[in-house]
Amino acid sequence: MNKQEIANILEEVASLLELKGEDPFRIRAYRGGARAVLNLDEDLRQLIREERLTEITGIGDHLAQVITFLSEGKKWPLYEELKKEIPKGLLEMMQLQGLGPKKVKALYDKLHIRSIADLKKALQKGKLAHLRGFGKKTEEKLLHAMKLREKGTGRILWWDAWEMAWPLLDRLKKSKGVQKAEICGSLRRKLETVGDLDFLVAAEPIDWVMKTFLGWGEEVLARGETKASIRLLSGMQVDLRVVTLDQFPFALHHFTGSKEHNIKIRTHTLKRGWSLSEYGLEPLRKGKKAPPIQSEKDLYEAIGLSYVPPELREDRGEIEAAAKGKIPRLIEEREIQGTLHNHTTASDGRNTLREMVAKGEALGWSYLGISDHSQSSVQANGLSEERLYEQVEMIRRLNRTKDWKIHVLAGSECDILPNGKLDYSDSVLRQLDFVIASVHSSLGQDEKTITKRIIRALENPYVSILGHLTSRILLERDPTKVNVKKVVDAAIANRKIIELNGHPKRLDMDWRYWKEAAERGLLCCINCDAHAVGDLEFVRAGVNVARKGWLTKEAVVNTFPLKKLLPFIRKNHNYSDTSDEEGGI
Ligand SMILES: [Zn+2]
Ligand SMILES: [Zn+2]
What we know:
This protein is an alpha/beta fold. It has four domains: 3-86, DNA polymerase, domain 1, CATH 1.10.150.110; 156-245, Beta Polymerase, domain 2, CATH 3.30.460; 250-323, Beta Polymerase, domain 3 (2-Layer Sandwich); 333-577, TIM Barrel, CATH 3.20.20.140. It contains 24 helices and 16 strands. The strands form four sheets. It has a seven-stranded parallel sheet. A five-stranded mixed sheet has the order 2-4-7-6-5, sandwiched between helices. The radius of gyration is 27 Å and the shape is globular.
């Protein structure tokens, strides 16, 4: 752990103790310690090695012990306990102007407010008015502080961040003196939303690339010899770090994160007799020599691990797997053979059937599913049974013409009605090549109701795929309160596929559920939920999060060739009450 991280933890502990109403002297001591660490002129690791930490003003015996402990990547029991005891949201609330620890504590104790989101709701309902110490003025101040915060910490979708970042990366690479350039941070880890853009560059000399970079800024937030931060016109913060070619793989690893992954890696490295930092790998004992390291792959190898792709670096078992050489070969975009969830002008799409098919063919896919909305989705111009039949006929004709190599599958994105019934009768559904069942209405149902509703739909023999499980819209609409585990169980039991909706605003079912679900046998279909030809490229966003969910090609049905795919999406089509359920494939 570096000094910034150690200082952050000391500061956080001070705040947590403050929330508990602990001894002010103790709180001041931790806060002073944080400042002392941050302001160190000497190298922290050297001070620790030479046991000279207590020479620094503000660092006593106890703090010296804690800092040594943290620098070795060990867990500090006090910190761990406090984190368990106090909701994380309370700390965030303390960062709002006008909210000190006492007020945050009162909000938590009296109104059970645990986060900024809770606070916002309470304010809107006027609940704070009756609380002692919270007058009208405080309310106004808080609303204002919240607005500021939303502006300042605004995250954007991965897709939008990527579109912003890659041209910049391109320009950095072409800048004079640049030997290597890469994107780091959550953008490189393909997290669904991104807070800022981080670039890393190896350059010699530094001046040229620095000048190029600063030139892009609407505002320069900070500039040093080897690092700088700017704000773009869009409001996005962009950070640049310049290192030497030798440091590049270490810095790339360090700035890619995640924080949790890095902490674990450092502990692992220490156990093997090395100390890892953003600058290099150093032996703990003199005489040992680090092997030459030119890439992240070399770096992982040097510490006895197989390479961990950036998407997996979230401390979800990847280090343990890498130690055993068991990192799976993750799915790749080129393995996708087609997608099934696509709309046309028949419902709310912006391109015609033929235009969508042409684009699918141009992407080199071997099949394309068409799944327009069903009749209850009036706002999306859902298809009546009659119009659906017409579309099916049109698709069959289109396949017969052999104008295209790509095979078009006739399906539907059929609404799951509030009671769990489907929006078309079974006699209609059975004529389709596949059926995606999705929730589009009554999103506010309680957990029990909505879970039962979805499971009921999964039990329908003609449903092949469950569409966007939680109906969330990232940064706009919260997910429905569905019990994901129960739905996954039901999907496995009924041999249904769950979609990974690749629309950059959805990325639903969330990647955090996929590893375990796939291990238990759940199959995935990565879809685009395309409403226009360009949206078919969203498959990349879907593959990104599929990789974060540890999915391999074998777990994703739309990497299968058409012949192999069909039984999975049509498996229960000959279902009748008397038929043996095992009869499907
Ligand atoms: Zn939908
Ligand atoms: Zn859709």
